[in-house]
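User:
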Amino acid sequence: MILETGTKWLKEFCKKSKALERLAPSVLNNLASISDVAILSEFRSRLYEQFNDFDCWLEKIIHNHFIFKDFPLNNRFGTYEDYFYGILGSYFFVKFVVTCYMADKVEKNDLTDVFSLLFRLINHTNFEFNAFVLLKQAGLNSLKKINKLLL
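Assistant: Predicted structure:
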């Protein structure tokens, strides 16, 4: 489910983002070598070995994103629960793309670049709403179901 959903979202959002278009070839190239989610777990392990402070980076970036979006005061769509699902979708997508993009890279500059390009898309579009809609369309409408996507 992770591979299918992540790949589908990447292709879908590439249509709307020149920033993501720059990342997509590398991500798709690395995804071409994946036959199952176990290899994706290997990519993730390698990422965490190279950048043992990765979770701290991601936490700070997401925190800045919340400030930028004026969360929770700016309820952009639906209920707060809907928006929360959109945030979870954003988290999934960021972690998926970063993990796949960094599979063949080791430089901190590459990690910085992928984060900046992803958040150019996320901060300047209705990404959370789109993620919420895609999750709902896929029947991922509960925390238990969404949890299957989180790396």
